Fold this protein.
Amino acid sequence: MVWSVNRLQSVEAEAPPHTLSDRANRLIDYDFVDSFRRPATQNNWVRDFNPITLLLVLLSISIIAVAVPNLVAPLLACASYVVIAFLARVGKQFVLTYAKLFVVVGLLLFVLRALFIPGKHTLFALGTLKISAEGVTDGLRFALMIMALCGAVALYFALVPMKLLMGALEDRGVSPHATYVILASFQAIVDLSKNTTVVMEAQKSRGIETEGSILNRALAFLPVLTPVLLSSMSSTEERAMALDARAFNASGEHTHLVSLRKVPGSEIAVGCAALLAVLVSIVGRMLSWF
Amino acid sequence: MSTKNGFSRFVAGYGRLTLLMIPIGIAINFIGGQIAVLLKLPIYLDSIGTILVGALCGGIPGALVGGISNILNSITSPTNIPYAILSIIFGLLAGWFSRMGVFRSLWKTLLSSLAFAAVGGGLGAIITLILFGGLSAGGMGVIVGIVHAAGMDLNLANFLVAIPADVVDKVPTVLIVYVILKRMPKRLFAKLPLGSVYLQKTPKRGVVSEPSSIS
């Protein structure tokens, strides 16, 4: 995680690769090694944007969608996410997740509001429920607004790997301790869920009932969770030692294996344009232009 | 430390093991929910880690666990973001309760679940009312909608559905925290900020204490 790349480079400069034996030369994947000497790239111009710039742009789009009080703005925002996703070549995957969100969250929010918000203009009645025009427009606007917010979050994490986001934050002066907590959380979630299935199978095989009545299943909860928790908590001590062995708590600046490219001017311009658009939309809302 | 900013100083104050307990707490929050799904239990159980870290390391680490869990959770379901405040309060509350020794006795632990449920259900309902107009997405929103359609006031329906649902969720949660605290290795307590609360031995009756007045 915190290898001293600069040190490696200087050693390498003194002893060029041809001094190694032929066998060693064949074994070392120099392309792979070199990939760490260049800034990290994801081979796509949208995804190579600095994570912070992308955050700014997507946040701006969602703020504009909320600030402009009509149906068109959130709809355009949702459409723009799809366009960005296709430009970044994660379109197919993003559209699938987003469509799922639309059905699970958006549709439900719309139906609930359309059903239960009273209004004067009744469109049609369903038993005791009266569907009003106000309910439908309000529901549509609200659901689209929430979807514009959801889409920004979903797209952001489809575009930016957590590792690079944390790298960008560290470049901006966020403490390595803070970024470690986030990255370690993701790893811990993966580790612990693997562990959980193992413990669950083990407890099943020694006769603990995990099926049947609700009481049976509730009683199975403790024997599954306790071993997972206790072992994970004991492992924290080992982790603490592992971190100290890598001088994580040492004074002085940390070095990084992966680095981000320098933010080009065009990217700064995109960020500024996004901020300007937000400003215009908020001022516009206040002066009721829309 | 030369690069000492806010968070690093905070970590230094709490000890290094706390830094490592926070990710574990976050993972526990997820795992609790996952096991509940695997066992097909009708509860969330997604604040075990928050309360456990709050009890062991103090309110602020607990609040961090709650807040971060919620933010990570919102990557897959973004409508959860506003409820992060609830998890943060759970963490703070757990730290405070722990300092008072609440998690050392079973009946006090059980009572504490009412406080957690009051926050989770009550404040949760208020957030739902303010942000989603009382009708959030998910199973709860459907139930509230049905109760409301049956003629009950929307505000009342929200509280009436949310608080009991949260009691059912928080009683097992605090019970699990209690059991874990009982079974944790004593060695680990010594290294955690609030561990001393659980190491203090209550003097047993009938045991003659060391005579101190004999000269």
